[in-house]
Amino acid sequence: MTKPKRVQRPKDELKRELIEQIALLRHSCQAFDNGLEAVGKHIALSLRVLLHDHRQSRALLDQLGLRSGRYLTSAPPLNPRNIATECNLVAMHLSNTGARYLPLVATGGGPMGLQPISFVNWWNDPVLKDNQGRKFCRRELVLHVADTDGGAHVDPELDEAYMAISRENSLGWVFSNGRSSAPLDGRPELICMRQIAHEVLSTIHQGASAYSQYAQPISKGLPVNPSD
């Protein structure tokens, strides 16, 4: 069978595509902040389109020469001396009735703000460690959600470590009121997607002047709950 001929996209079309992809990412972030946590799956898919090279598919930001610079991180490196679990893209919000995961952006940005590092380190350095010492970087989290867990596909089987993080509370974070304890509300991997999206939008907004006006980060404060 003859392989179908492929035609190069014009550069202007790639630029328009980036503007559209940024709009889709911002729209998903707004939906997430309004309470639709499951849209974190669509956030992961947008992040994959923007950032991930795979075989013949090139990341859109790479095609436009925007992937090799400095990226803004909100997560400090994992502490090698810390024997406890870590998830440096999220925070724990306590209320009178329980506790839940929140992206750092919802709490005001976290303790270190946004700091520039190389894309390679930003994409590949671990940001999460579970109770078995298993580590995940942004790339792994994004691809697990996008490729196997509802972004582009729903696989019948999931990676064991990812299953533990997303379904079995292998972070081990719990809320206790002295009488009982329960895992935090929310799915940490989807909360991570929201925070990674904030980092990407902030990076484009600050570092890519041609697209800055389109990539204004969505920065909604902590939701107000009368019972908190």
Question: What does this molecule look like?
Answer:
With 228 residues, this protein is of the alpha+beta class. The protein has one domain (11-214). 37% of the residues lie in helices and 14% in strands. It has helices at residues 11-33, 40-51, 60-63, 119-124, 138-148, 160-167, 188-207, and strands at 70-73, 86-87, 90-94, 99-103, 115-118, 126-129, 135-137, 174-176, 181-183. Strands 2-6-7 form a 3-stranded antiparallel beta sheet. α1 (11-33) runs antiparallel to α2 (40-51), α1 (11-33) packs across α7 and α2 packs across α7. The longest helix has 23 residues, at 11-33. It is globular, with a radius of gyration of 18 Å. The relative contact order is 0.19.
Spans of at least 5 consecutive residues whose pLDDT stays below 50 are 224-228
How would you sum up the global shape?
Answer: globular
Spatial sequence of strands, sheet with the most strands: 2-6-7
Total number of domains: 1
Please summarize the sheet with the most strands. Answer: 3 strands, antiparallel
Structural class: alpha+beta
Radius of gyration over all CA atoms, rounded: 18 Å
Work out the helicity level.
25-40%
List SSEs in N-to-C order.
HHHEEEEEHEEHHEEH
Average pLDDT: 91
Separation, N- and C-terminal Cα atoms:
64 Å
Note the beta-strand portion. Answer: 5-15%
Number of helices: 7
**Strand tally:** 9
Question: What's a quick, concise take on this entry?
Answer:
With 228 residues, the protein is α+β, with helices and mostly antiparallel strands. The chain is built from seven helices and nine strands. The protein has helices spanning 11-33, 40-51, 60-63, 119-124, 138-148, 160-167, 188-207, and strands at residues 70-73, 86-87, 90-94, 99-103, 115-118, 126-129, 135-137, 174-176, 181-183.
